[in-house]
Amino acid sequence: MSADQKLRLYYYMRLTRECESTIMRLYRQGKIVGGAYTGTGNEATAVGSAAALEARDYLFPMHRDLGAHLVKGQSLKNIFLQQLGRADSLTRGRDGTGHYADPALKIFGNVSHLAAMIPMAAGAALAAKMRREEAVVMTYIGDGGSNVGEFHEGVNFAAVMKLPLVVIIENNQFAYSTPVSRQYAASRLSDRAIGYGIPGHTIDGTDVERVYETCTEAIGRARRGEGPTIIESVTMRMQGHSASDDASYVPPALLDEWKKKDPVVRYESLLLKECVLTAEQKAKVDKEIGDAIGEAVRYAESNPLPDGNTAAEGVYAER
Ligand SMILES: Cc1ncc(C[n+]2csc(CCOP(=O)(O)OP(=O)(O)O)c2C)c(N)n1
Ligand SMILES: [Mg+2]
Q1: 188-198 exposure pattern, b = at least 16 Cβ within 10 A, e = fewer
Q2: Ligand nearest 99 Cα, by number?
Q3: Does residue 237 carry a catalytic annotation?
Q4: Does residue 213 carry a pLDDT above 90?
Q5: Can you give the pTM of this predicted structure?
Q6: Quick one: which of 20, 87, 203, 206 is 20 to 30 A from 306 by CA?
Q7: 249 CB near ligand 1 (under 6 Å)
């Protein structure tokens, strides 16, 4: 991997973390209504996976994947318009967080009902195959979501039809307050791939280069018409499920253990050690990110909230 590629991964992980801290701050200021989510601990998975995609590929991200939206080209302005529910946001203020679609960027944001997005992503992969686009669909699911029936239906269909699909299971040790020990009896979620007749990998989801390399391989298979891959990316949800959850049920020792593997800190130290990143470059990145987020938030806050009289418009498909 070239120095530029490494710096790109670093930049987007840092940007993701700063964006999410800003989202939490805005939530606590009462400016974000509804839920606010972070992917703290998941940055390497979200960024490393999306960085392996091309512009022609499709992204179906989940609620911990802001980094994937950013890497796929979503602007900070759109992210904050959306978070703040403004009139000119991608959903015109109909929904917050990542629940938007941006067909131009080929981003189809998360469906709330866990696992319902897997058959949708498989459907998009079928359409791409029928149109001979040579495009790949990448989608994500949590450890909890991977136990829902639609996961099975979607992945099985994709396997049988040899669809260009990459499914990343973000195993972050919890589904809300339920630990993985109460969710499934298998030792590895990637072992499910055996039952579908497709490859499955379990990787350290805090290692961005490992994520990138594994996804590059799976994307290559998908593009060559060899079918889907399951990648279980093992991480930790370092904060509550959402801003309203203090995660007091998470054993502190477990968090302490995972803090040592903080994906952003870990990659920064590695790049400093490899002399790919210098102290001056780091300071430049700090400033660039701070300025860009500040500008996007000011822009979004100056945009009006939607007119309540239009609330029902654009919600149902027109006949
Ligand atoms: C079918 C369904 N059941 C319950 C919920 C409520 N819910 C939203 S996120 C969540 C936890 C998901 O855990 P996991 O899949 O592990 O993803 P994580 O939040 O840990 O990234 C739950 C229970 C939902 N959205 N859909
Ligand atoms: Mg989880």
Answers
A1: ebbebbeebeb
A2: 1
A3: yes
A4: yes
A5: 0.97
A6: 20
A7: no
